Amino acid sequence: MSSSQPSSSSPPPTSDDSPPPNLPLKKIPGNYGLPFLGALKDRYDYFYNQGRDEFFHSRIQKNNSTIFRTNMPPGPFISHDSKVIAVLDAVSFPVLFDMTKVEKKNVLDGTFFPSTAFTGGYRACAYLDPSEPNHTVFKRFFLSLLAARYHKFIPILQNSLANLFSTIEDEISTKEKADFNALSDDMSFSIVFDLFCDRDPSDTKIGSDGSKLVTTWLFFQLAPLFSLGLKFVPNFLEDFFLHTIPFPFFPVKSAYNKLYDGFYTSASKILDEAETLGIKRDEACHNLVFMAGFNAYGGMKVLFPTLIKWVASAGESLHRQLVNEIRTVVKSEGGITYPALEKMSLVKSVVYEALRIEPPVPFQYGKAKVDMVVHSHDAAFEIKKGEMIFGYQPLATKDGRVFERPEEFVGDRFVGEEGEKLLKYVYWSNGREIDDPTAENKQCAGKDLVVLMSRVMLVELFLRYDTLTVEVGKQVGAGTSLTIKSLTKA
Q1: CB atoms < 10 A from the CB of 9, how many?
Q2: What gap in Å lies between CA 231 and CA 283, rounded to an integer?
Q3: What confidence tens digit (pLDDT) does each residue in 90-112 have?
Q4: Which CATH number does 25-489 carry?
Q5: Helix 180-197 to helix 153-175 angle, to the nearest 10 degrees?
Q6: Where are the domains of the chain?
Q7: Cβ–Cβ < 8 Å for 373, 12
Q8: Cα distance between residue 62 and residue 478, in whole Å
């Protein structure tokens, strides 16, 4: 059947349970260009000629569609196949969460798959499709680990944040500014290690190098997806070194082994439990390092500076509202507790809004398991089995047909009944915010913990301070570079 012609028999399944009626079935616009050259051109547009957001916006305008064909980096020679179908609106994007329609095998990083040498020779759970038996075993194991540590979350966060803000104050007093990223990274690794190993990493062979070790390990895996943005390096040189050949494992072998040994020694109870489930001890440890380092720390590395950036830039009016809500609820509840956090409707909304406007993981990929029809707001498109589907979350979560003032940070966007209805369009966790992670889906196992950590960070911030000012830059690779300029004490 031609991709531009509807079937004479019953149509393929759609990407939503209740698609708009009578949408025209159209051929997917866009093209991949000439072999090799088309992928190379798109790569240069993406990294250098246009930049990430303009790359997508220009193609939406050119194709007059939020669903179109394009190439996604890194392309030649790292990607075996760089061709994707982009779904860039709030309606089409959720097809990527439907495990009956898409396969998630080896697509975590998109159109290429880093060497398993980075993960001890194993495919970590994040690279497994739910149809693979090991996925269910590991995902269930991770969910049980997090559930068993539920009581530890708030105390660990409070202690870590107290140290963070104390250090920030010291740096401001001596240097008149504080590098939030570096301090937040160290805190984030300590939180993750303490959560799973019941000790501070400084008490192990990892020492104070945890965040640096993980960051180096992450960079060597994900370098093909980044641009360093170094003005003194010609684009063609950066492109050649970052996007042509994947980085080998051996330069970071010692760093990874140091991390692995630290977890292997300190997380013995977790690894014992894994063995009772039939998981090999070394495979369990490599997966634990991946979850703690790639999923948890990697996400926090991006999320925390982003959260503070948006809250700080929102201004003193929002700060006063947060101060009032947080201090009133904490006083009435006698402290920072789960019930207290649930009563802070503005705090919850601000966290969701930060996740909406700048999701910590911007990309989702999935390979079509079946022929299907995916619809945007205005049309339906047929996707064939085996085609790669790609979603850029920041466009889907800033869909102007769903959100008013989509490019603006609106702190109280999700307050009240009408605001809460919009949560189904917040997609940061490889799933809808209203959904829960299970062993059968690919939604982030730590989704609720991420939201909790963000809430507690805001509560601790505005219990101590009335307002803050920051300086925002771009982090090398990805994310926000954040400098705290001032903190006004309560």
Answers
A1: 7
A2: 42
A3: 999 999 999 999 999 999 999 99
A4: 1.10.630.10
A5: 160
A6: 25-489
A7: yes
A8: 27
